[in-house]
Known about the structure:
- The complex is a heterodimer of chains A (406) and B (406).
- With 406 residues, chain A is of the alpha/beta class.
- Chain A has 15 helices and 13 strands.
- In chain A, α1 crosses α15 (390-405), α3 (98-115) packs parallel to α4 (129-139) and α9 (246-259) packs across α13 (357-369).
- The radius of gyration of chain A is 21 Å and the shape is globular.
- With 406 residues, chain B is α/β, with parallel strands linked by helices.
- Chain B has two domains: 3-291, 7-stranded beta/alpha barrel (Alpha-Beta Barrel), CATH 3.20.110; 308-394.
- In chain B, strands 1, 2, 3, 8 and 11 form a five-stranded parallel beta sheet that branches. A three-stranded parallel beta sheet of chain B has the order 4-5-7, sandwiched between helices.
- In chain B, β4, α6 and β5 (164-168) form a beta-alpha-beta unit.
- Chains A and B meet through α13 and α14 of A and α13 and α17 of B.
Amino acid sequence: xxxxxxxxxxxxxxxxxxxxxxxxxxxxxxxxxxxxxxxxxxxxxxxxxxxxxxxxxxxxxxxxxxxxxxxxxxxxxxxxxxxxxxxxxxxxxxxxxxxxxxxxxxxxxxxxxxxxxxxxxxxxxxxxxxxxxxxxxxxxxxxxxxxxxxxxxxxxxxxxxxxxxxxxxxxxxxxxxxxxxxxxxxxxxxxxxxxxxxxxxxxxxxxxxxxxxxxxxxxxxxxxxxxxxxxxxxxxxxxxxxxxxxxxxxxxxxxxxxxxxxxxxxxxxxxxxxxxxxxxxxxxxxxxxxxxxxxxxxxxxxxxxxxxxxxxxxxxxxxxxxxxxxxxxxxxxxxxxxxxxxxxxxxxxxxxxxxxxxxxxxxxxxxxxxxxxxxxxxxxxxxxxxxxxxxxxxxxxxxxxxxxxx
Amino acid sequence: xxxxxxxxxxxxxxxxxxxxxxxxxxxxxxxxxxxxxxxxxxxxxxxxxxxxxxxxxxxxxxxxxxxxxxxxxxxxxxxxxxxxxxxxxxxxxxxxxxxxxxxxxxxxxxxxxxxxxxxxxxxxxxxxxxxxxxxxxxxxxxxxxxxxxxxxxxxxxxxxxxxxxxxxxxxxxxxxxxxxxxxxxxxxxxxxxxxxxxxxxxxxxxxxxxxxxxxxxxxxxxxxxxxxxxxxxxxxxxxxxxxxxxxxxxxxxxxxxxxxxxxxxxxxxxxxxxxxxxxxxxxxxxxxxxxxxxxxxxxxxxxxxxxxxxxxxxxxxxxxxxxxxxxxxxxxxxxxxxxxxxxxxxxxxxxxxxxxxxxxxxxxxxxxxxxxxxxxxxxxxxxxxxxxxxxxxxxxxxxxxxxxxx
Lengths: 406, 406
């Protein structure tokens, strides 16, 4: 029997700002490999394509197929959404705030749900929950809710938005199975949402195979010049926002530079804490050793991964952390916080508690100083990557589908 | 007429404390006293005390027909002296029976042979003196760390006056020959080579509690039967294993102590069998041929090599760094620094850096204080850095290299 899945997403590469889009792409592609037929729903018309599945846009049902310069960022907090809305009111066609956008998505999904035939509903994160709940109500098909991040990851343990929590909770209660991207996330779902652990399955993320691009080993030109004069590169790559721990990164950088001035710290990404972080670097007197690149995509992203002598993911709360796998894929040693899902699946990596900036600096300095350490990490990273694949993850998802459909 | 030679190797390392780059130049204590005490207490209680009691009873009840031999590293003797003097006393009682032989080895359970022949010899002499001081006996048989062996080691040890040396009965070298005879090392004159019967040794040391093993459960009768089968095609059965097999690697609950209490009796039931110590075996039996161990072998893992200690670049870098200090350390004439440098040679420090099978969950977690091999390396290298700092500070006091250090 061929399984037909109606999957609700929010973003898709190249129109993604974070791991959600990357994960959706990797997972759906691998699911197709198992013969799953997918109808992938996105909230708005975006210029994306995937020849292995059908992509439909919720707004395209009603509107002409014009590409919309959306404000929607999958990991937005409400504050940053409203800020961007103020800066660019025309782009937000559908509503003043993120909730209206989410509701709108739910309403517009109606026609898709009515038109399409499917056996199972699979929703990714809270933004898609109203649409998924509607689908379940209309068809009584089983619902799989895939949690890539909870409100507590986005806002810190104390500042969760009650309305977002409310939506998440409703979705989790209604779901037949919840997929968590790590045990780290599973535990949060149990602790903060009171969900029965028996309903939650852990399916770890993976990283896309980059073997095709390995032939090209070039790195960013400016960075290359720095390396040529003996500078070592430490990379932070991700949104500059509270739960990613960029401030811990900067403070550790200061400790490193006190001992080794020949290190350049690259911060690749953007986010609501960007100005704060730049100011912090200036305050600590290390601006001269910092490079802020803004958000990087594709070719530049690859080049910066390759240029780095060490990739650091200092997250305060990281449900998974695909970037660590990406860095390993590009043969760059990684240092990840223990407060991350990815640290559950990688063994050939350095690990640290995010708050322990002394230890973070200790490990950064060690990798930068001892070639033998960096090389042993690189040589062994493949043993981890071999075991972590979207194929394995998709297999686990297919098993969940089958269990629910029978 | 197989003579059973039961030999137990006794060792606990001085584990290092957590030592950060920020401790360099400030913190002079490198060892984790608390952990070392904790581990030692545990193993004294679970293994050394009850096992020694059983062995002493066996010797008394068999009127000295049961015999056993030990090598006890200098570093574990130091720990007994400091934390558990009752264990020293119980070993002394065993030696006093006359049925027990103490085997010689490097004081620091080191890999010194590989990197400094001079240091290797000095450590053998240090151990010899320590054993003589505590037990009043002079060892005649030598075993190297991890049963590390080659032709040249035999030659060196012969020149130091030893009568026999122990090695692994490696299949690829024995070929059609049996480990159950005494051999002569290639290039040696008188020294004899005793080979571990790894099948029968590992039946006890590794497989005793393995329910998937066809030999499980291993009764004393069954094991004695296997030993007796050697009659007619062998003269000795060398059972070489870690002392900690009894009570720690194989817990009391597995029945290992009951096995130990009965097994010697069942072996002695057959009048063709007896027990001998290593030097008795070497004197009783003629060499049945010359064996050529050109390359280093060990008793470790299926490879029977040293890859668990020197296999990756971190291990090589750490060892290189350590032994590069030899001249400066010896020249310093500073007993404290010399002792520290030697304690850093304990092979366990490098074993903790082993990356073989690490991603498979590793089989070698035994009392390993580190989360992963990388942390072990970073810690070790920080300590070496501090030691170097202290060496430079104390340099210039003495110009000539002293001959021997205690």
